[in-house]
Amino acid sequence: MAKVYVFDHPLIQHKLTYIRQKDTGTKEFRELVDEIATLMAFEATRDLPLDEIEIETPVSKTKSKVLSGKKLGVVPILRAGIGMVDGILKLIPAAKVGHVGLYRDPKTLKPVEYYVKLPNDVEERDFFVVDPMLATGGSAVEAINSLKNRGAKNITFMCLIAAPEGVEVLKNAHPDVDIYIAALDEKLNEKGYIVPGLGDAGDRLFGTK
Ligand code: URA
């Protein structure tokens, strides 16, 4: 079953408070999302495999650890997921970046894929699918379907704020996908916004309101 991790580090919680506030402007919002994504990536990469190599310090020879070079990928769900990419790449700069775009079908209200571009070696990479908000879970489920349909095997989902409803939907649809969250909020409202949330993450990131 999927594991759900809530990253309640004080720095993450502090920065979240400021992105939640309605008077926080676009520039600050974007910078804070970037910083939170970096802090989350630090926690999310805790289990990366290491190799031991021989090195020589100015004092003696010793064995020391380096990353074993696991291939990683970051896949933002368009468009708000883009706001998390640079922050993650600060820690894992060699990761490749894919993109998944989804729109909501006006009749079925279900997310439908309109754009997918992934690295060629999908099957060999571990992916972080990222979106600031996990609301109903529909987009996250569909984005992960898009990756799995193209051969991705090892996927983690990372978001800033989640609603319990979305976590349940994602866990049930993809029990093999662990979920990393900075804050688990109360609920969804009747318009599908997370409460208390932060409003529309895409609009706040890109200043389109
Ligand atoms: N998407 C958002 O940007 N905000 C929400 O509260 C829910 C979905």
Automatic annotation (TrEMBL):
CDD domains in the cross-refs: PRTases_typeI
Chain segments annotated as coiled-coil in the UniProt record: none
Keyword Transcription regulation: no
GO biological process: UMP salvage; uracil salvage
Name of one Pfam family that matches: UPRTase
Stored HAMAP family: Upp_B
Organism of provenance: Perspicuibacillus lycopersici
Domain Phosphoribosyltransferase, chain residue ranges per copy: 6-208
Activity regulation summary: Allosterically activated by GTP.
Cofactor note: Binds 1 Mg(2+) ion per subunit. The magnesium is bound as Mg-PRPP.
Matches recorded under PANTHER family: ADENINE PHOSPHORIBOSYLTRANSFERASE, URACIL PHOSPHORIBOSYLTRANSFERASE, CHLOROPLASTIC
The reaction(s) this protein catalyses: UMP + diphosphate = 5-phospho-alpha-D-ribose 1-diphosphate + uracil
Enzyme Commission number: 2.4.2.9
GO MF annotations, alphabetized: GTP binding; magnesium ion binding; uracil phosphoribosyltransferase activity
Protein name: Uracil phosphoribosyltransferase
